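Final report, Chapter 2: Outcomes

The project's central promise was a pipeline that accepts a single protein chain and returns its three-dimensional structure in a standardized token representation, suitable for archiving and comparison. That pipeline is now operational. To close this chapter, we reproduce one record exactly as it appears in the project archive, with the input sequence first and the structure output second.
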Amino acid sequence: MAAVAALRVAGRRLGLGAPARTAFWGGLRKKEKEVEADKIIHQEKSEPSLICPPPRSRNYLPPEDIQSCLESHVKEIFGPSLPDNWQQTPLKENRLKYRLLAQLAAELGHAVPNSQLHLMNSAEDVLNFYSTPVKDVSKFDELCAAELPPNLKITWEQ
């Protein structure tokens, strides 16, 4: 800190004004970086913009044989260490839990969200998650489709 103060005092004694000190301390380098950043931004704006893909549909209808499918995956991954009731298989080892959930997500096209991973403690929890259907319909769409009283109308403009 003392060295910085000494350089400032020396700069003032030599008659270096603010512009010279700025160049000495790297002010020009900052301006050069800003100019380069502006060039990059202009280049990105001139390129054609990519159209965002439509939002992913979150609809999920569980297959009828979800229990046998999950049972086969659990037996394949956990092998001989299964309890008598396969649904009571604990998912304590993260490596095996990941393999099971990754295989099911790839096969069924429906992944367990990060916010619910900590709830998957046994094969029964996984079975309950994958047995629950998911509708990708907003509350407004449900209200529009519902039979409403005659004095209530919802107009949905997109």
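Archive annotation: The helical segments are 2-13, 18-25, 27-46, 66-78, 94-108, 123-131, 139-145.
This record, like all others produced under the grant, will remain available to the consortium after the project formally closes.
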